[in-house]
Amino acid sequence: MAAAAAPASPDMFDEIVMAEERFHGEGYQEGYAEGSHAGVVEGRRYGSLHGAKIGSEIGCYLGFALTWQCLLQKCTDEKNSKKIRALDSLIGMIQKFPYEDPTYDKLQEDLEKIRGKFKQFMPD
């Protein structure tokens, strides 16, 4: 009987020694999965908020441009003609802006161009 108990003893010690490694590995996997999920949720929230701000900003520019385009339509002098062409350019840039593609590599560059074109209409 003593011989039968001896082989069980090293297995028990092996389980105790290996338990720390097993628990460490399981804890790492659980933590990684939880952290990944939290990162996705936070990223989605940030993206939605940032996207809404950009959409609101561009919508404001478009509203401004369309309103002034309507107001200046009846004016035919050269000064207003230049303003109308600049407004048409701004409206075209806004209409070409890739709202549906957040992976578009020139998104920030195009947004800066729209902002710059809008600033042309602001007094110094």
Description:
The chain is built from three helices and no strands. Residues 1-6 have low confidence and may be disordered. With 124 residues, the chain is mainly α. The chain is rod-shaped and about 100 Å long.
Layout of helices and strands:
Blueprint: H1 2-72, H2 78-96, H3 107-119
Helix pairs in contact: 1-2, 2-3
Radius of gyration, taken over Cα atoms and rounded to an integer in Å: 32 Å
Fraction of residues in β-strands:
under 5%
Total number of beta strands: 0
Helix/strand-derived category reads mainly alpha
Low-confidence stretches: 1-6
Ends distance: 98 Å
Largest sheet: none
What's the helical proportion of residues?
A: over 70%
- Listing every helix as H and every strand as E from the N terminus to the C terminus, the arrangement reads HHH
Give a nutshell description of this structure.
This protein has 124 residues and is an all-alpha fold. The chain is built from three helices and no strands.
Could you name the key traits of this structure?
disordered N terminus, 0% strand, mainly alpha, 124 residues, rod-shaped
